[in-house]
Amino acid sequence: MNIQNLLKSCADSISNLTGKELIEKNVKDFTIMGGQFPKGEKEWNFEGVMPGVTQFVLQNRTLPVTFSGVEIGEANKTGEVFNTLIQTHPFT
After folding, report:
1. Residue 65, strand partner residues
2. Is residue 84 part of a domain?
3. How far apart are CA 34 and CA 77, in angstroms?
4. b or e along 50-86 (b: 16 or more beta carbons within 10 Å of the residue's beta carbon)?
5. Mean confidence (pLDDT) of the chain
6. Which residue in 20, 26, 57, 77 has a CA-CA distance of 20 to 30 Å to 7?
7. Is the pLDDT confidence value at 92 over 70?
């Protein structure tokens, strides 16, 4: 949800750029992991507890996007630690 929130954000006291402008200025392209190729079951990044977030990001981004299947990152478990962060943490 953090990329969606950034895309929706306005300029503020930290930056005179909107979130979308910050992304366009600083990001070369998006890589989104999800799904399982060539076919597979529903996967967290597309069917998790944040319905519509991936769709919103894809519809509102202007940069190229590369999709990688869940099997590529399956051995690298990093997301669970973020569930323990306070809601005001930048990673949540």
Report:
1. 30
2. no
3. 14
4. eeebbebbeeebeeeeeeeebeeeeeeeeeeeeeeee
5. 84
6. 77
7. no
3-state class (DSSP) for residue 32: strand
- What pLDDT score was predicted for residue 77? 66
Tally of structural domains, the chain = 1
Alpha-carbon distance of 45 to 33, in angstroms, equals: 7
Instruction: Give residue-wise pLDDT tens across range 9-33.
Output: 999 999 999 999 999 999 999 888 8
Per the domain annotation, does 45 fall within a domain?
Answer: yes
8 falls within a domain: yes
Note down the domain range covering 14.
2-77
